[in-house]
Amino acid sequence: MDHASELLTAAKDVADLIRYGRKMVERGLVSAHAGNVSKRLGNSLLISTHGSMLDELEGKIVQVPLANPSALDRLASSELPMHRAIYLQTSGLAVFHGHGRFSIVESLRSPEERVTPVDVESAYYLPEIPIIAGESGTADLGHRAGKALQAQRGALIRGHGAVARGDSVEEAYAMLAIIEQACHIRYHLALAQALNGQRQDRQS
């Protein structure tokens, strides 16, 4: 790939990150300064900067090496170690991390190490969603995320939302949205069943 083609590819990837970062906010997958997005670009990656708002990413995306630390790392999202680990351990070309409300609830509510979607559409894309734990911004969390995303395209992080990978920015966003949908449906189904059980107890 020549230099001009690389520049065109990078420009498109930046535009995609800006577009889908905005969609994440509109969909309620993040709020305020939460969440981060990235796209692999050869031996480097484009990633949202530390503290940036995902619906205002113009001028807030930085390019850093894929494997080695750099001076620009200090500008990148604090979850850069997780993004790097996922790229190094999987075939993913884009990584999105969000803080959807129901993703957080399900990550805390489930005692298991995974949740299984109960709706057909979510289960089609993600037969199961692993739940991982780890301190935000650490290499340990990155390793756990990378390992979990080898088998699945998305995972929940206990108390910290969800992370998803894709072959494109659009796919990474879609997987994150599907995780939130699966968790939303699971929560409300469990609530409906609990309320129905209470009604039956009162009637018996």
Write the layout of secondary structure elements.
Layout: H1 3-27, E1 36-41, E2 44-48, E3 61-65, H2 80-89, E4 94-98, H3 101-109, E5 114-115, H4 120-125, E6 129-132, H5 139-151, E7 154-157, E8 162-166, H6 169-203
Parallel strand pairs: 6-7
Antiparallel strand pairs: 1-2, 1-4, 2-3, 4-8, 5-6, 7-8
Helix pairs in contact: 1-6, 2-5, 3-6
Structure write-up:
The protein is α+β, with helices and mostly antiparallel strands. The chain has one domain: Class II aldolase/adducin N-terminal domain (L-fuculose-1-phosphate Aldolase), CATH 3.40.225. Helices cover 48% and strands 18% of the residues. The chain has helices at 3-27, 80-89, 101-109, 120-125, 139-151, 169-203; strands at residues 36-41, 44-48, 61-65, 94-98, 114-115, 129-132, 154-157, 162-166. The chain has an eight-stranded mixed beta sheet with strand order 3-2-1-4-8-7-6-5, with helices on both faces. Helix 5 (139-151) links the parallel strand 6 (129-132) and strand 7. The longest helix has 35 residues, at 169-203. It starts with a helix and ends with a helix. The model has no long low-confidence stretch (mean pLDDT 94).
Number of domains: 1
Give the second-level CATH assignment, the architecture. 3-Layer(aba) Sandwich
Strand order of the largest sheet: 3-2-1-4-8-7-6-5
What is the overall pLDDT average? Answer: 94
Flag low-confidence runs.
none
Class, according to the CATH hierarchy?
Alpha Beta
**What Rg is obtained from the alpha carbons, in whole angstroms?**
18 Å
Number of strands: 8
**What is the structural class?**
alpha+beta
**Fraction of residues in helix:** 40-55%
Overall body shape: elongated
Order of helices and strands: HEEEHEHEHEHEEH
| Strand fraction | 15-25%
The total count of helices amounts to 6
The CATH homologous superfamily name equals Class II aldolase/adducin N-terminal domain
**Biggest sheet overview:** 8 strands, mixed
CATH topology: L-fuculose-1-phosphate Aldolase
